[in-house]
Automatic annotation (TrEMBL):
It comes from Paracoccus versutus (Thiobacillus versutus). This is (3S)-malyl-CoA thioesterase. It comes from the Bacteria.
Amino acid sequence: MRFPVPLNAVVAHRWHCDHFGHLNARHYAAAFDDATFVFWSGLGFRPDSDSPMPVTLEVKISFRQEIPAGSVVRIEAQVSKVGNKSVGLTFTMREAGGDELAICEVVEVFIHPKSRRSCPIPAALRAALSKESHSPPG
C-alpha cells in the first residue's frame, strides 16, 4: 500500500449539519472512525477470535475549515508511528481541490481478543506498517 492512501469519501448531508450550517463534530468523528476500518481492511487485516486486533486508544481532531451541506470530501491516511504494541495514524480530510478540512490523529493499540490485554502487533502487519511510517519502529 502506498501512503498517503485514499480511503473513503464523505458527503455532508443537510441533516449532518449544525445550526451554523456546517458539518457537526459528531459526523467528523464517524467519518474518521469509518476511515480507520477502511485503513485496516486495505492492509489486508481480517479480525478473528484468536488474533490480536487494533482498538482505538486516543483520538484528536483538529478542524481547519467549515464543511457546508452538499460537500463531498475525501479522507486519506498516513502512518505516523509504529511501536511494539501500538500504531499512530493521521487521517486528513480534504476537499476536491486538496485543501485540508480536518486532521484526525489516532493511536491504535493491539489487544488479544480473549485476554483483552495489549499485545505485540503481528509481525507481518508490523512490517507492512513500518515500511511506510514516518518514524523508526520502537
